[in-house]
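Hi support team,

I submitted a single chain yesterday and got back a structure, but I'm not sure I'm reading the token output correctly. Could someone confirm the output below corresponds to the sequence I sent? I've pasted both exactly as they appear in my results page.

Thanks,
R.
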Amino acid sequence: MSVELERRLRALEDRAEIAELIARYGPAVDAGDGERAAALWAPEGTYQFDDTVLDADGVRTLVHYDTHVEYMRRGCGHVLSAPRIEIDGDTATAVTHSVVLVHDGDRWVAERVSANRWELRRLPEGWRVQRRLNRLLDGAEAARELLSP
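Hi R., thanks for writing in. Yes, this is the structure output for that exact sequence:
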């Protein structure tokens, strides 16, 4: 196989692995499985939303937050858009939208709509989240900045 073909194949495999990693987040937290959610993060990785910064162990406990427990009691879905992925060697950045839908009577309500920037790195066991920034799309510039290339 040519070097160019190997490079292109590696890039496709990396993109597929990163997209799969991000896609596992919603089902993990909707199932209340903090272990599965935390496994997406590098050991020193962080997740920042609102004024909260969690380390990988904090991601594990996120499903036990009162707000999240209430979402699960009512019925919820963490839905992420397909990621825009940029890879640079063993690091990558992905940008997504996310919507937390919560069941309310006979309808679903978009409880939280956010911009997300995922910073990832390749570890021996595969790609993991190094840092995830999540900002509400509430008109603030900070959220729009996350969506910029």
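A quick pointer for reading it: The longest strand covers residues 107-123. Let us know if anything else looks off.

Best,
Support desk
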